[in-house]
Amino acid sequence: MKNHIKTITLYVSCLFILISCTETVAPPTAINPTPSEKQLKWHDMQFYAFTHFSLNTFTNKEWGYGDESPTLFNPTALDTRQWARIVKDAGMKGIIITAKHHDGFCLWPSAYTERSVKNSPWKNGQGDVVKELAEACKEYGLKLGIYLSPWDRNHPEYGKPGYITYFRNQLKELLTNYGDVFEIWFDGANGGDGYYGGANEMRKINTLEYYNWEETYKMIYDISPNTLTWGVGPSEARWIGNEEGRAGKTNWAPLRQKDELAGKVHYTEFMSGHIDGEKWVPGEADVSTRPGWFYHEVEDDKVRPIEEMVDIYYESIGRNANLLLNIPIDKRGLVNEHDEARLKELTAIIKADFKTELLVNSEVSATNVRGNNKVYAASNVINNQKNSYWATDDDINSASITFEFKEPTNVNRLLLQEYVKLGQRVKTFNVEVNINGTWKTVANETTIGYKRILRFPRVKANAIRVNITDAKGCLVISTIKAYSAPTLVKSPIIERNKNGVIKLSAEQNNNIFYTLDGTTPTPNSTLYKKPFKYTEAVKIKAIALNTQENITSAVTTSNYGKSKEKWGIVSATSGDLKTAEKVIDGNPRTIWGLGNNEHKLPQEIIIDMGSQLTINGFTYFPQQVGNNLYLISKYEFYTSTNKTKWTKQSAGEFSNIKNNPIEQIKTFKSCKARYLKFIATAAIGNSNSVSIGEIGVLENK
Ligand code: FUL
């Protein structure tokens, strides 16, 4: 009898399972906003290149004024196939080119202006860079994107209705003559002083009204429906709010775009989007391999260190954003060797980090599965099918999913994806690992979105559990993957103060080895023990060694002129001389000038270098820390051997300093000098206040 009952029970439960598995359970309803098909395709691209290349490449500027002659554009070995090969090898999916930057020079022979390649010596005016790139992209299976600067510092009619017709005509040319364009990039820098056909004046416009973006976008979609619009106006993707390539840890694709268009959103909010945003406007993180966007020879040794590049990857793609990585094209018309080498390193590290997926053979279970139906099974997250997902019941917006390994497994990366076609939902989650029976939390996080990648210290885990603790509705998770990435040893930081004291630092328990003669350091080089003094010009190279795993870091190189030991402040127009000393203390984080009302422009500082030096440039490190950076936008720089007769060596603007407050390097003809006079003549913003982190010189070798 007992057995009989057992059989019946078994039979009933099998039937129940069978019914619940075959029964169709409706998929979750979408939570608005949701992405369009075009946006979904764009999300899948994840990683693509930016190429800044124009007249600026030849004039050594970041922003041209608009009066530079097109005859200066003369690459000696332009090869867009080389760009495409390097981009493809780096695993990127497309290239966006600066068809026209702010100075108005066109890389294609536009029918609407003389200011283009057609009036340059390159290919006797017969060339077309956009066409060559479109062809190379096609050959290498890459998508083409276009940057067309709305701001045009050359055009006589900029600011008037005539320019809008010109701008739209150029858009038409670019969107019809070069095949498919996956993205059109409209930069936010707009209005200011410029050449404007010889008027040489300041022109300010209201970006939103002037361009009538609604209409401009309508025109774009009519001509080229598959082109995604980026940037100003009611666009389909947004700036990430900085030029460092980093998204917020919390990052919603939704954005309150209506508020943004009404001027009610500060750009720093772009890093995180808005939980209550009414439109799907995902973030794209743009950053250059170097400090500047255009190629400058002085930045050849300033390509971002490999650890920074890796961080950028994880803090953009790993934080629900696409990564747009700029590779400046050099004067030859090629990707420079320095950038190519760094890209290869980055590609190798990313490949190694995601080499072996670890969850694929694990046992998966979840605390809730929608309708108990296998269509929404927890195991869908490891089946590698983009269109399947684990979902929970409608009333369940928190649940756990557990992966049990067959044997203890090393893990330090977790990749998660929501099925964003149905909206971005997860608000908070955490990750636990089970080590020999004890659960330990390794991450406490907020959003997931299209893709989230977590890095945590390597653990040998028996199981991993992801607890989603809050969401906008039921859960819809398409992918969870885990990896064990090799250890990346961070290269040392090199600092030298005013008196020439050199300090090297690295991660805890790492040894540092260095050289002072320009040779590559190895673990047989000098072991760093404590800060030491070295006042002469020197090239320091250092590596860190993780002694536990016996792995070395990449090399950090720092070039120094003579130390500023003998430097002093002669005079400063604001504050006491002691505070002014901060501009020569070797530390860009300490500043002179605190944006208060006493500091009116112009501001001037005179420095005595203590002895006569031969110099051919100066550097200005803007303030790095603080909410208001009091940045200098225009300057004059003078030198003197006797403090009475001054020679103007350089004057002009620090272009793009607002969005990218990097060290500014200005070169000039070599001269002898003992005294330096730096004058700030204009500042960013309305405060009229300025500050300086550090002033330095470029010494002639
Ligand atoms: C900025 C521009 O002003 C820069 O020159 C550069 O093109 C960068 C990508 O966007 O805002």
UniProtKB/TrEMBL annotation:
Keywords, alphabetical: Glycosidase, Hydrolase, Signal
Cellular component terms per the entry's GO annotation: lysosome
SMART domains per UniProt: Alpha_L_fucos (SM00812)
The keyword Hydrolase appears for this protein: yes
Its EC number(s): 3.2.1.51
InterPro entries membership: FA58C, Fn3_assoc_repeat, Galactose-bd-like_sf, GH, Glyco_hydro_29, Glyco_hydro_29_N
Pfam families xref list: Alpha_L_fucos, F5_F8_type_C, Fn3_assoc
Signal sequence region: 1-25
Gene Ontology biological-process annotations: fucose metabolic process; glycoside catabolic process
SUPFAM superfamilies noted in UniProt: (Trans)glycosidases, Galactose-binding domain-like
Presence of keyword Protease: no
PROSITE patterns in the cross-refs: FA58C_3 (PS50022), PROKAR_LIPOPROTEIN (PS51257)
Alphabetized GO MF terms: alpha-L-fucosidase activity
Domain F5/8 type C span(s) in chain numbering: 347-485, 538-697
Family: Belongs to the glycosyl hydrolase 29 family.
Listed name of the protein: alpha-L-fucosidase
Source species of the chain: Wenyingzhuangia marina
Native organism taxonomy: Bacteria, Pseudomonadati, Bacteroidota, Flavobacteriia, Flavobacteriales
